[in-house]
UniProtKB/TrEMBL annotation:
It is an enzyme of class 5 (isomerase). Residues 25-193 form the Helicase ATP-binding domain. Coiled coil: none annotated. It comes from the Bacteria. Keywords: ATP-binding, DNA damage, DNA recombination, DNA repair, DNA-binding, Helicase, Hydrolase, Isomerase, Metal-binding, Nucleotide-binding, Zinc. Its cofactor is Zn(2+); Mg(2+). GO terms for molecular function: DNA helicase activity; hydrolase activity. It holds the Pfam family Helicase_C. This is DNA helicase RecQ. Its EC number is 5.6.2.4. It catalyses: Couples ATP hydrolysis with the unwinding of duplex DNA by translocating in the 3'-5' direction. It comes from Microbulbifer spongiae. CDD domains: DEXHc_RecQ (cd17920), SF2_C_RecQ (cd18794).
Length: 600
Protein backbone atom coordinates (compact mmCIF):
# COMPACT_ATOMS: atom_id res chain seq x y z
CA UNK A 1 0.00 0.00 0.00
CA UNK A 2 1.47 3.38 -1.04
CA UNK A 3 1.67 6.36 1.28
CA UNK A 4 -0.31 9.56 0.53
CA UNK A 5 2.92 11.33 -0.52
CA UNK A 6 3.83 8.51 -2.91
CA UNK A 7 0.33 8.57 -4.41
CA UNK A 8 0.55 12.34 -4.86
CA UNK A 9 3.85 12.08 -6.70
CA UNK A 10 3.48 8.90 -8.76
CA UNK A 11 -0.23 8.92 -9.63
CA UNK A 12 -1.12 12.61 -9.72
CA UNK A 13 2.33 13.97 -10.58
CA UNK A 14 2.64 16.66 -7.91
CA UNK A 15 5.55 17.09 -5.54
CA UNK A 16 3.86 18.90 -2.65
CA UNK A 17 0.46 19.11 -0.96
CA UNK A 18 -1.30 22.44 -0.72
CA UNK A 19 -2.37 23.66 2.68
CA UNK A 20 -4.45 22.06 4.30
CA UNK A 21 -4.61 18.94 2.08
CA UNK A 22 -2.04 16.98 4.11
CA UNK A 23 -3.84 17.63 7.42
CA UNK A 24 -7.21 16.61 5.94
CA UNK A 25 -5.72 13.42 4.53
CA UNK A 26 -4.01 12.61 7.85
CA UNK A 27 -7.38 12.98 9.60
CA UNK A 28 -9.04 10.46 7.28
CA UNK A 29 -6.06 8.10 7.36
CA UNK A 30 -6.51 7.97 11.14
CA UNK A 31 -10.16 6.96 10.64
CA UNK A 32 -11.67 10.30 11.71
CA UNK A 33 -14.29 12.52 10.07
CA UNK A 34 -13.66 15.89 8.41
CA UNK A 35 -15.65 18.88 7.13
CA UNK A 36 -13.73 20.78 4.46
CA UNK A 37 -14.46 24.25 3.09
CA UNK A 38 -12.09 25.02 0.25
CA UNK A 39 -12.54 27.34 -2.74
CA UNK A 40 -13.09 25.95 -6.23
CA UNK A 41 -9.73 25.01 -7.69
CA UNK A 42 -8.21 24.57 -4.23
CA UNK A 43 -7.72 20.82 -4.57
CA UNK A 44 -10.71 19.39 -2.70
CA UNK A 45 -10.83 16.18 -4.76
CA UNK A 46 -7.36 15.05 -3.69
CA UNK A 47 -8.47 15.32 -0.05
CA UNK A 48 -10.62 12.20 -0.49
CA UNK A 49 -9.14 10.55 -3.59
CA UNK A 50 -5.70 10.05 -2.03
CA UNK A 51 -6.86 8.55 1.30
CA UNK A 52 -9.32 6.35 -0.62
CA UNK A 53 -6.32 4.94 -2.49
CA UNK A 54 -4.05 4.78 0.57
CA UNK A 55 -6.58 3.03 2.85
CA UNK A 56 -7.83 -0.50 2.41
CA UNK A 57 -11.14 -0.84 0.55
CA UNK A 58 -13.16 1.25 -1.89
CA UNK A 59 -13.93 4.93 -1.40
CA UNK A 60 -17.54 5.96 -2.02
CA UNK A 61 -18.11 9.49 -3.31
CA UNK A 62 -21.59 11.04 -3.14
CA UNK A 63 -21.95 13.51 -6.01
CA UNK A 64 -25.08 15.45 -7.03
CA UNK A 65 -24.58 15.62 -10.79
CA UNK A 66 -24.02 13.07 -13.54
CA UNK A 67 -21.64 15.42 -15.38
CA UNK A 68 -19.42 15.79 -12.33
CA UNK A 69 -19.15 12.03 -11.87
CA UNK A 70 -18.31 11.42 -15.52
CA UNK A 71 -15.63 14.14 -15.56
CA UNK A 72 -13.91 12.94 -12.42
CA UNK A 73 -14.07 9.24 -13.29
CA UNK A 74 -12.63 9.90 -16.77
CA UNK A 75 -9.73 11.83 -15.25
CA UNK A 76 -9.09 9.15 -12.62
CA UNK A 77 -9.13 6.36 -15.18
CA UNK A 78 -6.62 8.24 -17.35
CA UNK A 79 -4.38 8.43 -14.26
CA UNK A 80 -4.58 4.65 -13.91
CA UNK A 81 -7.06 4.56 -11.02
CA UNK A 82 -9.83 1.94 -10.87
CA UNK A 83 -12.86 4.25 -10.74
CA UNK A 84 -16.51 3.95 -11.78
CA UNK A 85 -19.86 5.65 -11.26
CA UNK A 86 -23.45 4.51 -10.85
CA UNK A 87 -26.32 6.80 -11.81
CA UNK A 88 -29.36 6.90 -14.08
CA UNK A 89 -27.17 7.07 -17.21
CA UNK A 90 -25.67 3.61 -16.57
CA UNK A 91 -27.37 0.61 -18.20
CA UNK A 92 -28.55 -2.43 -16.24
CA UNK A 93 -25.77 -4.59 -17.69
CA UNK A 94 -23.12 -1.98 -16.87
CA UNK A 95 -24.52 -1.67 -13.35
CA UNK A 96 -24.18 -5.40 -12.77
CA UNK A 97 -20.58 -5.31 -14.00
CA UNK A 98 -19.67 -2.39 -11.72
CA UNK A 99 -21.34 -4.03 -8.71
CA UNK A 100 -19.33 -7.19 -9.45
CA UNK A 101 -16.13 -5.14 -9.53
CA UNK A 102 -17.05 -3.66 -6.16
CA UNK A 103 -17.73 -7.06 -4.60
CA UNK A 104 -14.42 -8.46 -5.93
CA UNK A 105 -12.26 -5.60 -4.61
CA UNK A 106 -11.60 -4.31 -8.14
CA UNK A 107 -12.56 -0.65 -7.52
CA UNK A 108 -10.65 2.11 -5.77
CA UNK A 109 -13.38 4.76 -6.05
CA UNK A 110 -17.11 4.51 -6.73
CA UNK A 111 -19.16 7.65 -7.43
CA UNK A 112 -22.86 7.52 -6.57
CA UNK A 113 -25.75 9.95 -6.88
CA UNK A 114 -27.39 10.47 -3.47
CA UNK A 115 -30.66 8.90 -4.57
CA UNK A 116 -28.78 5.80 -5.80
CA UNK A 117 -26.78 5.54 -2.58
CA UNK A 118 -29.93 5.67 -0.44
CA UNK A 119 -31.62 2.77 -2.22
CA UNK A 120 -31.86 -0.30 0.10
CA UNK A 121 -30.13 -2.44 -2.53
CA UNK A 122 -27.11 -0.11 -2.64
CA UNK A 123 -26.82 0.19 1.13
CA UNK A 124 -27.02 -3.59 1.42
CA UNK A 125 -24.34 -3.97 -1.24
CA UNK A 126 -22.02 -1.56 0.59
CA UNK A 127 -22.48 -3.50 3.82
CA UNK A 128 -20.87 -6.50 2.10
CA UNK A 129 -17.61 -4.82 1.06
CA UNK A 130 -14.63 -3.14 2.68
CA UNK A 131 -14.99 0.67 2.48
CA UNK A 132 -12.11 3.10 2.88
CA UNK A 133 -14.25 6.24 3.32
CA UNK A 134 -17.37 8.16 2.36
CA UNK A 135 -16.92 11.53 0.65
CA UNK A 136 -19.96 13.84 0.43
CA UNK A 137 -19.14 16.35 -2.31
CA UNK A 138 -21.00 19.64 -2.80
CA UNK A 139 -22.12 19.31 0.84
CA UNK A 140 -23.88 22.71 0.80
CA UNK A 141 -26.70 20.86 -1.02
CA UNK A 142 -27.81 19.69 2.44
CA UNK A 143 -28.66 23.26 3.47
CA UNK A 144 -32.30 24.26 3.12
CA UNK A 145 -31.12 27.88 3.18
CA UNK A 146 -28.74 27.24 0.30
CA UNK A 147 -29.13 27.94 -3.41
CA UNK A 148 -28.50 24.32 -4.49
CA UNK A 149 -30.64 22.46 -1.94
CA UNK A 150 -31.13 18.75 -2.69
CA UNK A 151 -33.67 16.91 -0.53
CA UNK A 152 -31.80 13.59 -0.91
CA UNK A 153 -28.84 15.07 0.93
CA UNK A 154 -30.91 15.35 4.10
CA UNK A 155 -30.93 11.57 4.43
CA UNK A 156 -27.16 11.14 4.20
CA UNK A 157 -26.86 11.12 7.98
CA UNK A 158 -27.73 7.42 7.65
CA UNK A 159 -24.08 6.83 6.70
CA UNK A 160 -23.05 7.76 10.22
CA UNK A 161 -25.61 5.32 11.63
CA UNK A 162 -25.12 2.36 9.28
CA UNK A 163 -21.35 2.61 8.76
CA UNK A 164 -20.04 3.99 12.09
CA UNK A 165 -16.47 2.75 11.49
CA UNK A 166 -16.05 4.28 8.02
CA UNK A 167 -14.60 7.82 8.09
CA UNK A 168 -16.62 10.52 6.35
CA UNK A 169 -15.55 13.75 4.70
CA UNK A 170 -17.99 16.47 3.58
CA UNK A 171 -16.67 19.09 1.15
CA UNK A 172 -17.95 22.36 -0.29
CA UNK A 173 -16.62 25.55 -1.81
CA UNK A 174 -19.59 27.68 -0.78
CA UNK A 175 -20.86 28.03 2.76
CA UNK A 176 -21.27 30.99 5.08
CA UNK A 177 -21.15 30.36 8.83
CA UNK A 178 -24.87 29.55 9.02
CA UNK A 179 -24.68 27.01 6.18
CA UNK A 180 -21.52 25.51 7.63
CA UNK A 181 -23.25 24.88 10.95
CA UNK A 182 -26.24 23.37 9.15
CA UNK A 183 -24.01 20.98 7.17
CA UNK A 184 -22.33 19.79 10.38
CA UNK A 185 -25.67 19.32 12.16
CA UNK A 186 -27.52 17.53 9.37
CA UNK A 187 -24.65 15.18 8.54
CA UNK A 188 -23.72 14.46 12.18
CA UNK A 189 -20.32 16.10 11.74
CA UNK A 190 -20.32 18.40 14.79
CA UNK A 191 -17.46 16.40 16.31
CA UNK A 192 -15.57 16.15 13.01
CA UNK A 193 -12.44 18.19 12.49
CA UNK A 194 -13.30 21.30 10.46
CA UNK A 195 -10.90 22.69 7.85
CA UNK A 196 -11.75 26.17 6.55
CA UNK A 197 -9.43 27.46 3.84
CA UNK A 198 -9.36 31.01 2.60
CA UNK A 199 -12.25 31.85 0.29
CA UNK A 200 -9.97 34.13 -1.68
CA UNK A 201 -9.46 33.43 -5.38
CA UNK A 202 -6.73 36.00 -6.11
CA UNK A 203 -6.46 35.01 -9.78
CA UNK A 204 -10.04 36.13 -10.47
CA UNK A 205 -10.53 39.80 -11.33
CA UNK A 206 -13.97 40.97 -10.19
CA UNK A 207 -15.71 43.55 -12.39
CA UNK A 208 -19.22 44.81 -11.67
CA UNK A 209 -20.90 47.41 -13.88
CA UNK A 210 -24.39 48.91 -14.15
CA UNK A 211 -26.28 47.79 -17.24
CA UNK A 212 -26.25 50.22 -20.12
CA UNK A 213 -26.41 48.74 -23.59
CA UNK A 214 -25.86 45.23 -22.32
CA UNK A 215 -25.04 43.58 -25.62
CA UNK A 216 -22.55 46.28 -26.50
CA UNK A 217 -20.93 45.89 -23.07
CA UNK A 218 -20.68 42.12 -23.52
CA UNK A 219 -19.26 42.40 -27.02
CA UNK A 220 -16.69 44.93 -25.87
CA UNK A 221 -15.62 42.58 -23.10
CA UNK A 222 -15.35 39.55 -25.38
CA UNK A 223 -13.45 41.42 -28.08
CA UNK A 224 -11.06 42.84 -25.51
CA UNK A 225 -9.47 40.34 -23.15
CA UNK A 226 -11.38 37.22 -24.10
CA UNK A 227 -10.67 36.46 -27.75
CA UNK A 228 -10.88 32.71 -28.26
CA UNK A 229 -11.33 31.93 -24.57
CA UNK A 230 -13.72 29.46 -22.98
CA UNK A 231 -16.31 31.02 -20.69
CA UNK A 232 -19.74 30.84 -19.10
CA UNK A 233 -22.42 33.51 -19.45
CA UNK A 234 -25.28 33.34 -16.94
CA UNK A 235 -28.78 34.71 -17.53
CA UNK A 236 -31.82 34.65 -15.26
CA UNK A 237 -34.35 33.33 -17.81
CA UNK A 238 -34.37 30.56 -20.39
CA UNK A 239 -35.57 32.93 -23.11
CA UNK A 240 -32.65 35.27 -22.49
CA UNK A 241 -30.25 32.31 -22.58
CA UNK A 242 -31.45 31.26 -26.04
CA UNK A 243 -31.61 34.81 -27.43
CA UNK A 244 -28.13 35.65 -26.16
CA UNK A 245 -26.59 32.41 -27.51
CA UNK A 246 -28.18 32.98 -30.91
CA UNK A 247 -26.98 36.60 -31.03
CA UNK A 248 -23.42 35.64 -30.03
CA UNK A 249 -23.38 32.97 -32.73
CA UNK A 250 -24.39 35.65 -35.25
CA UNK A 251 -21.41 37.70 -34.04
CA UNK A 252 -19.07 34.84 -34.91
CA UNK A 253 -18.67 33.21 -31.50
CA UNK A 254 -19.05 29.53 -30.66
CA UNK A 255 -21.87 30.01 -28.13
CA UNK A 256 -24.22 27.25 -26.97
CA UNK A 257 -27.40 27.55 -24.84
CA UNK A 258 -27.95 25.42 -21.73
CA UNK A 259 -31.02 25.35 -19.49
CA UNK A 260 -33.35 22.80 -17.91
CA UNK A 261 -35.98 23.26 -20.64
CA UNK A 262 -33.77 21.91 -23.42
CA UNK A 263 -33.92 18.20 -24.36
CA UNK A 264 -31.58 16.05 -22.30
CA UNK A 265 -29.61 15.01 -25.40
CA UNK A 266 -29.10 18.66 -26.41
CA UNK A 267 -27.86 19.63 -22.97
CA UNK A 268 -25.47 16.69 -22.93
CA UNK A 269 -24.11 17.53 -26.38
CA UNK A 270 -23.60 21.21 -25.52
CA UNK A 271 -21.84 20.29 -22.31
CA UNK A 272 -19.66 17.79 -24.16
CA UNK A 273 -18.61 20.43 -26.69
CA UNK A 274 -17.89 22.95 -23.95
CA UNK A 275 -15.63 20.46 -22.16
CA UNK A 276 -13.85 19.05 -25.19
CA UNK A 277 -13.57 21.88 -27.70
CA UNK A 278 -11.47 24.98 -27.23
CA UNK A 279 -12.92 28.50 -27.28
CA UNK A 280 -16.54 27.42 -26.68
CA UNK A 281 -18.74 29.49 -24.40
CA UNK A 282 -21.92 28.32 -22.69
CA UNK A 283 -24.86 30.69 -22.16
CA UNK A 284 -26.82 29.22 -19.29
CA UNK A 285 -29.16 29.53 -16.38
CA UNK A 286 -27.79 28.36 -13.03
CA UNK A 287 -28.81 24.83 -14.15
CA UNK A 288 -25.27 24.67 -15.57
CA UNK A 289 -21.99 24.49 -13.78
CA UNK A 290 -22.07 22.77 -10.38
CA UNK A 291 -19.17 20.36 -10.33
CA UNK A 292 -17.97 21.19 -13.86
CA UNK A 293 -14.29 20.28 -13.73
CA UNK A 294 -13.04 22.29 -16.74
CA UNK A 295 -9.92 24.09 -15.46
CA UNK A 296 -9.39 26.64 -18.24
CA UNK A 297 -12.61 28.67 -18.06
CA UNK A 298 -11.18 32.15 -18.51
CA UNK A 299 -14.29 34.20 -17.77
CA UNK A 300 -17.70 34.08 -16.13
CA UNK A 301 -20.24 36.75 -17.05
CA UNK A 302 -23.51 37.45 -15.25
CA UNK A 303 -25.97 39.35 -17.44
CA UNK A 304 -28.41 39.47 -14.51
CA UNK A 305 -27.93 39.95 -10.79
CA UNK A 306 -27.41 36.70 -8.84
CA UNK A 307 -29.85 36.28 -5.98
CA UNK A 308 -27.14 35.96 -3.30
CA UNK A 309 -23.43 36.37 -2.67
CA UNK A 310 -23.18 32.59 -2.16
CA UNK A 311 -24.55 32.00 -5.68
CA UNK A 312 -22.28 34.71 -7.11
CA UNK A 313 -19.21 33.28 -5.40
CA UNK A 314 -19.88 29.73 -6.52
CA UNK A 315 -20.69 30.70 -10.12
CA UNK A 316 -17.70 33.04 -10.52
CA UNK A 317 -15.54 30.32 -8.94
CA UNK A 318 -15.95 28.24 -12.10
CA UNK A 319 -13.42 30.56 -13.72
CA UNK A 320 -9.72 29.96 -13.40
CA UNK A 321 -9.69 26.61 -11.63
CA UNK A 322 -6.17 26.18 -13.02
CA UNK A 323 -4.94 29.24 -11.11
CA UNK A 324 -4.44 31.33 -14.26
CA UNK A 325 -5.77 34.88 -14.56
CA UNK A 326 -9.52 35.01 -15.15
CA UNK A 327 -12.30 37.59 -15.09
CA UNK A 328 -15.74 37.66 -13.47
CA UNK A 329 -17.95 40.34 -15.03
CA UNK A 330 -21.39 41.22 -13.63
CA UNK A 331 -23.83 43.60 -15.33
CA UNK A 332 -26.78 44.57 -13.14
CA UNK A 333 -29.67 46.98 -13.07
CA UNK A 334 -32.65 48.13 -11.03
CA UNK A 335 -34.91 45.79 -13.02
CA UNK A 336 -32.88 42.85 -11.65
CA UNK A 337 -33.63 43.93 -8.10
CA UNK A 338 -37.34 44.21 -8.88
CA UNK A 339 -37.46 40.81 -10.60
CA UNK A 340 -35.60 38.98 -7.83
CA UNK A 341 -37.67 40.71 -5.15
CA UNK A 342 -40.83 39.55 -6.93
CA UNK A 343 -39.50 35.99 -6.98
CA UNK A 344 -38.90 36.11 -3.23
CA UNK A 345 -42.37 37.46 -2.49
CA UNK A 346 -44.03 34.94 -4.82
CA UNK A 347 -42.27 31.97 -3.24
CA UNK A 348 -44.17 29.57 -0.98
CA UNK A 349 -41.57 29.85 1.78
CA UNK A 350 -42.29 31.02 5.30
CA UNK A 351 -41.95 34.65 6.33
CA UNK A 352 -38.64 33.75 7.99
CA UNK A 353 -37.40 32.30 4.69
CA UNK A 354 -38.49 35.40 2.78
CA UNK A 355 -36.80 37.68 5.29
CA UNK A 356 -33.61 35.66 4.94
CA UNK A 357 -33.77 35.82 1.12
CA UNK A 358 -34.35 39.59 1.19
CA UNK A 359 -31.27 39.95 3.36
CA UNK A 360 -29.18 37.90 0.95
CA UNK A 361 -30.43 39.90 -2.02
CA UNK A 362 -29.63 43.19 -0.28
CA UNK A 363 -26.13 41.91 0.54
CA UNK A 364 -25.60 41.03 -3.12
CA UNK A 365 -26.79 44.45 -4.24
CA UNK A 366 -24.58 46.04 -1.60
CA UNK A 367 -21.53 44.30 -3.11
CA UNK A 368 -22.44 45.86 -6.45
CA UNK A 369 -22.74 49.39 -5.11
CA UNK A 370 -19.73 49.66 -2.78
CA UNK A 371 -16.91 52.05 -3.62
CA UNK A 372 -14.21 50.11 -1.73
CA UNK A 373 -12.39 46.86 -2.59
CA UNK A 374 -14.86 44.23 -3.77
CA UNK A 375 -12.69 41.29 -2.69
CA UNK A 376 -12.49 42.62 0.87
CA UNK A 377 -16.31 42.90 0.98
CA UNK A 378 -16.79 39.46 -0.58
CA UNK A 379 -14.45 37.79 1.91
CA UNK A 380 -15.97 39.71 4.81
CA UNK A 381 -19.34 38.13 3.93
CA UNK A 382 -17.73 34.74 4.54
CA UNK A 383 -16.25 35.95 7.86
CA UNK A 384 -12.76 36.34 6.42
CA UNK A 385 -10.57 39.43 6.66
CA UNK A 386 -8.31 40.74 3.90
CA UNK A 387 -5.86 43.19 5.47
CA UNK A 388 -5.45 45.45 2.45
CA UNK A 389 -7.28 46.18 -0.83
CA UNK A 390 -6.65 43.40 -3.34
CA UNK A 391 -5.47 45.45 -6.32
CA UNK A 392 -7.27 43.06 -8.68
CA UNK A 393 -10.88 44.25 -8.81
CA UNK A 394 -12.42 47.15 -10.69
CA UNK A 395 -12.77 49.42 -7.66
CA UNK A 396 -9.08 48.95 -6.83
CA UNK A 397 -7.86 49.38 -10.41
CA UNK A 398 -10.21 52.27 -11.26
CA UNK A 399 -11.55 53.81 -8.02
CA UNK A 400 -15.10 55.05 -8.65
CA UNK A 401 -15.97 58.71 -8.41
CA UNK A 402 -18.39 59.76 -5.67
CA UNK A 403 -20.73 62.72 -5.33
CA UNK A 404 -22.85 64.42 -2.68
CA UNK A 405 -26.23 62.90 -3.50
CA UNK A 406 -28.06 64.42 -0.50
CA UNK A 407 -30.15 66.95 -2.45
CA UNK A 408 -31.02 64.49 -5.24
CA UNK A 409 -31.96 61.85 -2.67
CA UNK A 410 -34.31 64.26 -0.90
CA UNK A 411 -35.99 65.05 -4.23
CA UNK A 412 -36.43 61.36 -5.01
CA UNK A 413 -37.74 60.42 -1.56
CA UNK A 414 -40.13 63.39 -1.58
CA UNK A 415 -41.47 62.32 -4.98
CA UNK A 416 -42.01 58.74 -3.75
CA UNK A 417 -43.92 60.13 -0.77
CA UNK A 418 -46.04 62.63 -2.74
CA UNK A 419 -47.07 60.03 -5.34
CA UNK A 420 -48.48 57.93 -2.51
CA UNK A 421 -45.74 55.30 -2.11
CA UNK A 422 -47.62 53.00 -4.48
CA UNK A 423 -45.70 53.39 -7.76
CA UNK A 424 -42.60 51.75 -9.17
CA UNK A 425 -39.33 53.26 -10.28
CA UNK A 426 -40.27 54.17 -13.84
CA UNK A 427 -43.29 56.28 -12.86
CA UNK A 428 -41.45 58.09 -10.06
CA UNK A 429 -38.65 58.99 -12.49
CA UNK A 430 -41.18 60.18 -15.08
CA UNK A 431 -42.66 62.56 -12.49
CA UNK A 432 -39.23 63.81 -11.40
CA UNK A 433 -38.17 64.47 -14.99
CA UNK A 434 -41.45 66.15 -15.93
CA UNK A 435 -42.81 63.61 -18.36
CA UNK A 436 -46.17 64.39 -19.95
CA UNK A 437 -47.11 60.76 -20.58
CA UNK A 438 -50.63 59.41 -20.18
CA UNK A 439 -50.03 57.75 -16.79
CA UNK A 440 -48.68 60.95 -15.25
CA UNK A 441 -51.68 62.91 -16.53
CA UNK A 442 -54.17 60.23 -15.47
CA UNK A 443 -53.06 60.47 -11.86
CA UNK A 444 -52.65 64.28 -12.15
CA UNK A 445 -49.09 64.03 -10.91
CA UNK A 446 -48.11 66.99 -13.06
CA UNK A 447 -49.77 69.02 -10.27
CA UNK A 448 -47.30 67.79 -7.62
CA UNK A 449 -44.55 70.04 -6.26
CA UNK A 450 -41.99 67.36 -7.19
CA UNK A 451 -43.07 67.31 -10.85
CA UNK A 452 -40.12 68.20 -13.09
CA UNK A 453 -37.67 68.99 -10.28
CA UNK A 454 -35.30 66.25 -11.49
CA UNK A 455 -34.67 67.30 -15.07
CA UNK A 456 -31.00 67.89 -14.27
CA UNK A 457 -30.33 64.14 -14.01
CA UNK A 458 -30.79 61.46 -16.68
CA UNK A 459 -33.11 58.52 -16.10
CA UNK A 460 -30.09 56.22 -15.75
CA UNK A 461 -28.72 58.45 -12.98
CA UNK A 462 -32.02 58.39 -11.10
CA UNK A 463 -32.08 54.59 -11.40
CA UNK A 464 -28.55 54.37 -10.05
CA UNK A 465 -29.58 56.58 -7.11
CA UNK A 466 -32.64 54.40 -6.44
CA UNK A 467 -30.50 51.26 -6.37
CA UNK A 468 -28.17 52.78 -3.82
CA UNK A 469 -31.00 54.10 -1.65
CA UNK A 470 -32.50 50.60 -1.62
CA UNK A 471 -29.14 49.11 -0.63
CA UNK A 472 -28.71 51.62 2.19
CA UNK A 473 -32.21 50.97 3.51
CA UNK A 474 -33.82 54.33 2.73
CA UNK A 475 -36.24 52.72 0.25
CA UNK A 476 -37.82 49.30 0.02
CA UNK A 477 -39.63 47.58 -2.83
CA UNK A 478 -42.92 45.98 -1.80
CA UNK A 479 -46.11 44.44 -3.12
CA UNK A 480 -47.21 42.85 -6.35
CA UNK A 481 -46.42 45.99 -8.36
CA UNK A 482 -43.01 46.55 -6.68
CA UNK A 483 -43.98 49.92 -5.26
CA UNK A 484 -41.31 52.09 -3.70
CA UNK A 485 -41.83 52.92 -0.01
CA UNK A 486 -39.90 55.06 2.45
CA UNK A 487 -38.39 53.56 5.60
CA UNK A 488 -37.75 55.10 9.01
CA UNK A 489 -34.13 55.75 8.00
CA UNK A 490 -35.37 58.54 5.71
CA UNK A 491 -36.26 61.01 8.49
CA UNK A 492 -32.80 62.43 9.28
CA UNK A 493 -31.92 62.57 5.57
CA UNK A 494 -35.13 64.42 4.67
CA UNK A 495 -34.50 66.84 7.55
CA UNK A 496 -31.02 67.57 6.24
CA UNK A 497 -29.33 66.14 9.32
CA UNK A 498 -27.08 63.76 7.36
CA UNK A 499 -25.32 63.92 4.01
CA UNK A 500 -25.04 61.13 1.49
CA UNK A 501 -21.89 60.36 -0.52
CA UNK A 502 -22.66 57.82 -3.25
CA UNK A 503 -20.99 56.17 -6.21
CA UNK A 504 -21.32 58.23 -9.39
CA UNK A 505 -22.61 56.39 -12.44
CA UNK A 506 -19.60 55.92 -14.78
CA UNK A 507 -19.74 57.92 -17.98
CA UNK A 508 -18.72 54.90 -20.04
CA UNK A 509 -17.53 51.35 -19.59
CA UNK A 510 -13.77 51.08 -19.35
CA UNK A 511 -12.00 49.07 -22.00
CA UNK A 512 -9.69 46.21 -21.12
CA UNK A 513 -6.29 45.71 -22.66
CA UNK A 514 -6.40 42.99 -25.28
CA UNK A 515 -4.29 39.88 -24.87
CA UNK A 516 -3.45 36.86 -26.93
CA UNK A 517 -5.45 34.02 -25.39
CA UNK A 518 -3.00 31.48 -26.74
CA UNK A 519 -0.17 33.05 -24.73
CA UNK A 520 -0.40 32.02 -21.06
CA UNK A 521 1.35 34.01 -18.41
CA UNK A 522 5.06 33.35 -18.06
CA UNK A 523 5.70 32.41 -21.70
CA UNK A 524 7.40 34.57 -24.31
CA UNK A 525 6.68 35.05 -28.00
CA UNK A 526 9.55 32.67 -28.76
CA UNK A 527 7.73 29.99 -26.73
CA UNK A 528 4.57 30.15 -28.86
CA UNK A 529 5.41 27.59 -31.55
CA UNK A 530 6.27 24.92 -28.95
CA UNK A 531 3.26 25.85 -26.81
CA UNK A 532 0.90 25.48 -29.77
CA UNK A 533 2.52 22.21 -30.86
CA UNK A 534 2.02 20.75 -27.38
CA UNK A 535 -1.61 21.89 -27.41
CA UNK A 536 -2.13 20.21 -30.80
CA UNK A 537 -0.59 17.00 -29.46
CA UNK A 538 -2.85 17.11 -26.42
CA UNK A 539 -5.92 17.73 -28.57
CA UNK A 540 -5.15 14.76 -30.81
CA UNK A 541 -4.63 12.43 -27.84
CA UNK A 542 -7.84 13.65 -26.19
CA UNK A 543 -9.91 13.14 -29.36
CA UNK A 544 -8.44 9.67 -29.78
CA UNK A 545 -9.61 8.74 -26.27
CA UNK A 546 -12.88 10.67 -26.34
CA UNK A 547 -12.00 12.83 -23.32
CA UNK A 548 -11.59 16.60 -22.76
CA UNK A 549 -8.05 17.93 -23.46
CA UNK A 550 -7.49 18.85 -19.79
CA UNK A 551 -7.92 15.19 -18.81
CA UNK A 552 -4.70 14.49 -20.70
CA UNK A 553 -2.79 17.42 -19.15
CA UNK A 554 -3.75 20.82 -17.74
CA UNK A 555 -2.43 24.01 -19.35
CA UNK A 556 -0.17 24.49 -16.32
CA UNK A 557 1.52 21.16 -17.08
CA UNK A 558 2.04 22.10 -20.74
CA UNK A 559 3.52 25.39 -19.60
CA UNK A 560 5.85 23.46 -17.32
CA UNK A 561 6.97 21.40 -20.33
CA UNK A 562 7.70 24.55 -22.30
CA UNK A 563 9.79 26.01 -19.49
CA UNK A 564 11.69 22.82 -18.58
CA UNK A 565 11.90 21.50 -22.17
CA UNK A 566 12.51 17.89 -20.98
CA UNK A 567 14.22 15.51 -23.43
CA UNK A 568 13.98 12.26 -21.44
CA UNK A 569 11.20 10.34 -19.69
CA UNK A 570 12.76 10.98 -16.27
CA UNK A 571 12.95 14.72 -16.96
CA UNK A 572 9.34 14.76 -18.19
CA UNK A 573 8.22 12.96 -15.02
CA UNK A 574 9.70 15.84 -13.01
CA UNK A 575 7.20 18.28 -14.58
CA UNK A 576 4.31 19.04 -12.21
CA UNK A 577 1.17 17.14 -13.24
CA UNK A 578 2.97 14.23 -14.94
CA UNK A 579 2.47 10.98 -13.00
CA UNK A 580 3.60 7.43 -13.74
CA UNK A 581 0.44 6.40 -15.59
CA UNK A 582 0.28 9.49 -17.80
CA UNK A 583 4.00 9.20 -18.51
CA UNK A 584 3.42 5.65 -19.72
CA UNK A 585 0.40 6.63 -21.84
CA UNK A 586 1.40 10.02 -23.22
CA UNK A 587 5.10 10.54 -22.51
CA UNK A 588 6.53 9.43 -25.85
CA UNK A 589 4.09 11.56 -27.85
CA UNK A 590 4.96 14.74 -25.95
CA UNK A 591 8.69 13.99 -25.92
CA UNK A 592 8.58 13.64 -29.70
CA UNK A 593 7.12 17.15 -29.93
CA UNK A 594 9.65 18.57 -27.46
CA UNK A 595 12.59 17.04 -29.33
CA UNK A 596 11.42 18.68 -32.57
CA UNK A 597 12.12 22.09 -31.05
CA UNK A 598 15.68 23.17 -30.20
CA UNK A 599 16.21 23.73 -26.50
CA UNK A 600 16.97 27.40 -25.81
Amino acid sequence: MQSPQQILEHIFGYAHFRDPQAAVIDTLMAGNDALVLMPTGGGKSLCYQIPALARSGCGVVVSPLIALMQDQVEALQEAGIRAAFLNSSVSYEETLAIESQLLHDALDLLYLAPERLLQPHTLSLLQRVKLSLFAIDEAHCVSQWGHDFRADYLQLNCLHEQFPDVPRIALTATADQRTRAEIARRLNLETARHFVSSFDRPNIRYRIEPKGNQRRQLLQFLRGTQKGSAGIIYCLSRAKVENTAEWLSQQGYSALPYHAGLPTATRAEHQRRFLREEGVMIVATIAFGMGIDKPDVRFVVHLDLPKSIEAYYQETGRAGRDGESSVALLLYGLEDVVKLAQMVEASEGSEEYKRHERGRLNAMLGLCEITSCRRQALLHYFAETLDRPCGNCDTCLEPPATWDASEAAIKLLSCVYRTGQRFGATHVIDVLRGSGNEKVRRFEHQQLSTYGIGKDLASSEWRALMRQLIVRGYLEVTGEFQSLMLTELCRPLLRGEVSLQLRRLPAKTSRSVSRDPAAPEGLTCEDQPLWQALRNCRKALAEERGVPPYVVFHDATLRGMVKAHPQTRSALLAVSGVGDSKLARFGDAFLAVLRDFPKR
